[in-house]
Amino acid sequence: ATPTSIMVGTGRAAEMGVLFRKGDALQRLQEVEVVAFDKTGTITEGRPELTDMELADGQSRDAVLRLVAAVEAQSEHPVAQAILRAAGDRAALPAVADFASITGFGVRGTVEGRAVLVGAQRLMEREGIAPGELVDRGKALAAAGRTPLFAAIDGKVAAVIAVSDPVKPTSRAAIEALHGLGLEVAMITGDAQATADAIASELGIDHVTAEVLPDGKVAALEALRAGGRKLAFVGDGINDAPALAHADIGIAIGTGTDVAIESADVVLMTGDLRGVVNAFDISARTMRNIR
Ligand code: ADP
Ligand code: MG
Question: Which family would the database say this protein is a member of (predicted)?
Fold first, then answer.
């Protein structure tokens, strides 16, 4: 590779909103066979909305939502924002004691003397709470690509709440174009398996790794790398930084967190995943001129 052609390629990429932070990334991109994406905020908008709330017998929507929102008001997770928007007036929420965030599972707190737990079904399992009559509703919601969250009050499941995070309008075209370049596409997420499977099948994604704990993304990449295949990882979040650094090529979304950007080889100026396709295109053209 001549320094001039690399410079020209890097410049062209920058004009298209693709910043190569490391010059050799333009060359190394040609060896990549698998592109793995983070789901939330990368493939999807990262702004979920509450879509459903199914109650256990004897529970009222307003009462459950009030307790759940009080606990979620202490959380920074996008899911918490969805629940708070649905609950309305934040100032009217009761106080919370003993708040704890259980990373990758959900949150807990004591509200008006009642123990409130909100999170994935695996949080209920972890706490020894039977999901009960609502387990099938949770499954149906996940099969529709929504994220089911279980809310337990005083050790009993009171509701299943679904949030839905829309897929970015350009994600499908980007994935199709990557397939057109002969690449395999994977998705890694902390979300429920059935939710992830539904989204992946809608988008034609080849491999899904779901229910990954925040520190498990590197191990998920290693599994995809079986047989020594080179891979690129695309992500936006704080939790994505280790995977961005570990992948053969880390591609960060520039509207994401600073730590993700600092860990990446390539930065996309917008959240449009067609930027990933542009990166591969420019890399191929640059290397073709050289050979
Ligand atoms: P992701 O970034 O894919 O959402 P996380 O590890 O942050 O992955 O979360 C995994 C799962 O844990 C979420 O899909 C959700 O079910 C649950 N969870 C995390 N935080 C919360 C929260 N504040 N309230 C309810 N559930 C949560
Ligand atoms: Mg993300």
Answer: Belongs to the cation transport ATPase (P-type) (TC 3.A.3) family. Type IB subfamily.
